Structure formats: structure tokens, C-alpha cells
Amino acid sequence: MVQSKIDSYTVPAINPRYISIPQLNITKTRVTKVDVTSDCQHDVPRNINDTAWFKDSATPGSGVGAVLIDGHNGGITKSGVFAKLSTLQAGDKIIIERGDGKKFTYGVVENISMSLEEANTSGMKKMTQSIESDKEGLSLITSDGKWIPKYQQFGSRIMLRATLSV
After folding, report:
1. Helix (H, G, I), strand (E, B) or coil at 107
2. pLDDT tens digit string along 32-53?
3. What is the pLDDT of residues 126-137, one digit of tens each?
4. How far apart are CA 16 and CA 30, in angstroms?
5. CB 3.0 to 4.6 Å from 162: which of 54, 57, 72, 138, for a disulfide?
6. How many CB atoms lie within 10 A of CB 1?
């Protein structure tokens, strides 16, 4: 993506604008806003270089709930922004910058892989809540595992949960 397009990207003041993950060499990746799809699933980013914030989840700095962001693991010919998400460990930092320029740093608490079925039945509900009820949370999701042609998706999900660092 052309740097000028990234730099000129704008969102409302309290919405997440960029995500940076130093451990993965991810710097200032755009965060787009998404809703649910017609079949009641959380939508995903339109390309493998952006991430997507679920609009009904928390906003950075709100102090409650969890900011829920999805990113692609990869496409047919190249890796996506969250291709190495599974390698993050407890304590690794994730920075979210809002539309007003304010930055929030989160520390990884949990990073697990779960089956698509488990993600769809109970995992997504967990991801909308902070892993620590007294701290604002951040939840990152990407696909993982083997491609299942019948369902046109991967068979598992990486589910990362972090909390706001003070």
C-alpha cells in the first residue's frame, strides 16, 4: 500500500485508526470499521493489508469491554497482516492509535488457537469481553489451520487477548 494513502487515512476521533505490533514489524496498519454480514457473522477487512474493527465492540480508551479487531492470515498468493499473530507471547505489546492521534498500548495476556466450531459457538462471545474484567481489553482474531473447501474458510482461529497497559 502506498504510504501516502496510509498517512491520509482518517476515522472519527474515538475510533481505532491504526494498529502497530512492534514484535511482528507491523507499523501503522489501517483499521477499517465493519459490521455483521447478512448471515450474522462479523465481517472482515476487504484486503489482506488492512485490519477491521467490529463497530459494536469497545473503542480504545473507553475503559470497558474489548476492542475487537480482525485481520487476514493470508491470501492465495501472499501473507496477510496477521500471518504471524500466533507467535505473539504474553507481555508483547500492541499499539492502537485512534482517529484523534491518541495511542493506547495493550499487553498480550493470552494467545490460543481454537477450532472454527468452538470460535463460532463460544469463542466470539469471549472475544467481545476483556480477559480481565477490571481492565479494558483488546481482542485480535485471524484464521489458521487447513483450508476447508466445503466451507470456503480455514478450520481454526487464532484468538489473542490483551489488556490496556497503564
Report:
1. strand
2. 998 776 666 666 778 889 999 9
3. 898 999 999 999
4. 9
5. 138
6. 11
